[in-house]
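Protocol step 4 of 5: obtain the predicted structure for the target chain.
Materials: sequence only (see below). No template structures provided, no constraints applied. The aim of this step is simply to have a reference model before the mutagenesis design in step 5. Sequence pasted as it appears in the construct record:
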Amino acid sequence: MRARAPEGARGNIWDSQGPILFVFRFYSCVLRPLPMKSLETAWAFLSDSVTVCWEGPKTYRAAAVKKQSRRSFIVLSSLVGVLTLTSVLLRAMQGAPLTPDAASSLMAGDSRTALRVIFNTQVAPQAGRWQSIYVHHSRTPRGDVASLASGEQGCGDHFMIGNGAGALDGEIQFTQRWNLQQPAEPAAGLANIDATCISICVVGDFDRTAPTPTQIKRLEHLAQTLQEQFRIPATGVWLFDCANSPAGAGRYFPASAFQGQLLR
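Step 4 output (structure tokens):
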């Protein structure tokens, strides 16, 4: 039997008795009144604690390295996820090239900014390609790009603005000619049209009725957007007075008010 340390002497838990014997003495003296099940639980906890202490800094270092590696993996995975999501959003915002049946996508709102999508064509618009704008009416009570197309050549205009019959009121439709940046065909009654002229048809017979306010607003925005993109002056936007002919703008078209909204 080993001699007990003098009363008041400071013991060392790492003496020759070892940590396990020390913990056992502490357990026997302090925790003796507890039930056996509680003592077993306490002993298991203390044994685990001693094991950690016995193994020393090496165990803590390994645990820290493992935790840091896991944290780095989570951060890297999150970064990759954010970059991927950003790429997808940017791709979606850019949009695909316009197609002839995507006319409804041009009704994004009442601002000119929303119309910038018209330049996302299959054949990219080139600076200086377009130098003037020609506006006329269809001289029909209704219509859209498909119904007013003529033969295999399709619609002769680049853009068409609906009146609510055949197309939504103010709906801006584009044709394959604009998508491929091809010259327009002259409207019926017009001898010819310059190859650098953008043709816009506003659906309606304006020799009988006036265009709707929404049509006029969308026409103004479209003309201004094209002017800004291709540096077309107000003098380069043409309206012809051709009575009873789709080559003209029509008797009830508000020519003066429209021309007053053009960019100078």
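Step 4 remarks: The helical segments are 18-30, 36-55, 57-94, 176-179, 213-230, 255-260. The two ends are 111 Å apart (CA to CA).
Proceed to step 5.
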